[in-house]
Amino acid sequence: MRRLFLGLALFPLTCRKPAQVAADVAGTVAVAWAGSAKGRFAAPAAALWCRTDSLLEVLATRHDTGVGFTVIAQDSVRVAQYPVVSAAVQANWRPLGYAALRVATDSALRGYEATSGLINVTGLADGTVTGTLDLRLKRADGPDTVRIGGKFTRLRIVSAQGPCGRVVRPAPAPPPRPAVK
To answer: From its phi and psi, is residue 106 left (phi > 0), alpha (psi between -120 and 50) or beta?
Structure first.
């Protein structure tokens, strides 16, 4: 009987959520999403700068959940708003961004790709980047959609080593042809 009471007394302690990383801790990305799925996530993040393609890649993962986004700058990351487009769009303009979310459910891993939104870089100081996210994503293999809001806080920017950037870069636009009369 004592074991039963002890087990019942300890049961709530075993059901607590694991501690999450605080959203305002330097070097973290914290997001919440709602729509066909709902959740929140915070984790340490890596911010890699690819000089050859002028892009910043941010990736935050914890266990089977992750969020990543890319800011494609004109020449360097600046305090600015970066419109997010679908990866299916062959965009050859700058600045712009891409984003994705991977979520573990009870039965599967679900991948979401950004369809639109905004990455807002609000601060650059001492080799770090800070900003906010407002993204709309669609499930990669279905009709489900989610909207993400969140922020990234003082992520240390590190130069990428070795080959980096987009594997298939959009070809530059050809120069305009003069009109023939």
So the answer is: alpha
